[in-house]
Design brief:
This protein has about 220 residues and is an alpha/beta fold. The chain contains eleven helices and six strands.
Length: about 220
């Protein structure tokens, strides 16, 4: 079982998240916190695997709690869950060692999938967050675009035409479901393609693959 902590200062939000997560037979919500300090204490006490942290909480916000968990309880994988999708929040969460970032209006299946991915040691970003990160990092490296483009194109040479189509949509920040609709493929098939792409490109997560797609100018 994946042991989860939910930290949010709104009880109704916590209740909704708990209801979604406990519908999965491999996830157990073992603690709930109303602020960042309480989240730190409960994460240690209950030996949680994944902590879901809201950004805006009293006493200690989610990003500060994430950083403190990384220093004191490194075994906990942390997901930032918020209504705020600003680029700076996404990048700070990743810099502080967060396992992922998703918005509170994400679909229930996406929330469950993010928890499972975090517990498995994988990075997870919602499509909206992926777009923020890709756009930000691409803008920051514009001066080296020609060199990066050539390097990216060489790496992408190992992909089949269909894999390149899927990768191009990752570069747009699309979810597996949305990519499947664009390419007339099932979500499960897209997921298989994504796993294959990450393995071929030696990428740890979708964000790294999306950046390669952007650098290479890949389009469907």
């Amino acid at each position: 079982m994946i042991r989860v902590l939910i930290a949010d200062d709104e009880p109704l939000i916590r209740a909704g998240i708990r209801m979604i997560l406990t519908s999965a037979d491999d996830i157990e919500v073992v603690a709930e916190a109303g602020d960042g300090h309480e989240a730190l204490e409960l994460a240690r006490r209950h030996r949680v695997d994944v902590a879901l942290l809201d950004i805006q909480m009293p006493r200690l916000d989610g990003l500060a709690a994430l950083a403190e968990l990384g220093r004191t309880t490194p075994g906990v994988r942390t997901l930032i869950l918020t209504t705020f999708g600003e680029r700076d929040n996404v990048l700070r969460a990743l810099r502080e060692g967060g396992a992922g970032f998703l918005l509170k209006d994400s679909a229930p299946g996406e929330l469950i999938g993010a928890v499972r991915a975090a517990a498995a040691g994988e990075a997870y970003l919602s499509p909206a967050a992926t777009r923020h990160v890709v756009d930000s990092l691409a803008a920051g490296t514009a001066g080296r675009s020609a060199t990066r483009a050539e390097q990216a194109r060489r790496r992408l040479a190992v992909l089949s035409e269909r894999e390149r189509d899927v990768l191009a949509l990752l570069g747009e920040g699309l979810s597996n479901a949305d990519a499947g609709r664009r390419l007339h493929m099932s979500e499960a098939t897209v997921k298989t393609y994504v796993s294959r792409i990450l393995a071929k490109l030696a990428c740890d997560n979708r964000v790294q693959a999306a950046l390669l797609a952007r650098d290479a100018g890949l389009e469907v």
